[in-house]
Amino acid sequence: MKIATSFALACLLQATAYCQQTDLGTFNDQRNRIDKAAFKVLGAYSAANVIYGSIASSQSSGSNKYFHQMNAIWNGVTLGITALGYLTKKQEGNLSYSGSLKKQHTTEKLFLFNAGLDLAYIAGGAYLYEKSKTSTNNPERLKGYGQSVMLQGGVLLVFDAVVYAIHNRHGKKLTGLADRLQLSATGNGIGISVGL
């Protein structure tokens, strides 16, 4: 009887671990797909801005020239960072529940942190724009750069907020995985049940 009970418990634990690992693997793969899709969207936007900004700055003058010039420069840097992030994004392998939870929280915090930086960019652009009104040293450049930095900071703020919201909603599935496991004790012993 003890051997049969031990065997049944071992099979149950193995099945539980397999179900949880499969669900966690799917969950982590989905998180990676969200990140890669976000990299593609930001990369496409940045590439379009580099091309258009380069062309438009050569055909403009005054503050418009500097506006387009900064759009090209800003998005060139963003494109490089995005490409690096996309190319270095790799599968994490089999993460435990706690490892998956930690990775999910880190991802969400990263997008919140970036949103804070975006607000700083907008404020910096507003400062340059206001400074252009009183500066005697190339005010058109300050105005154009300020307008560009405010615009790009605003676009990044929307981007980071949307991707954070998507990750946050996805992260709630992880709680659902934990809710499916139930530990119970009876007069005969301890049991684990998995809701399928």
Helical proportion, percent range = over 70%
Q: How many domains make up the coordinates? A: 1
Mean pLDDT: 84
Number of helices: 4
Sequence of strands across the biggest β-sheet: 1-2
- Assembly state of the chains shown: single chain
- The gyration radius over C-alpha positions equals 25 Å
Structural class: mainly alpha
Strand content: 5-15%
Summarize the structure.
With 196 residues, this protein is mostly helical. It is 82% helix and 6% strand.
Overall description:
It is a single chain. This protein is elongated. Residues 4-21 and 192-196 have low confidence and may be disordered. It has one domain (2-90, 106-194). Helix 1 runs antiparallel to helix 4 (139-179). A two-stranded antiparallel ribbon has the order 1-2. The two termini are 28 Å apart. The protein is mainly α and 196 residues long. The chain is built from 4 helices and 2 strands. The protein has helices at 2-58, 62-88, 97-132, 139-179; strands spanning 181-186, 189-194.
Which helices and strands occur, and which strands form pairs?
Elements: H1 2-58, H2 62-88, H3 97-132, H4 139-179, E1 181-186, E2 189-194
Antiparallel strand pairs: 1-2
Helix pairs in contact: 1-2, 1-4, 2-4, 3-4
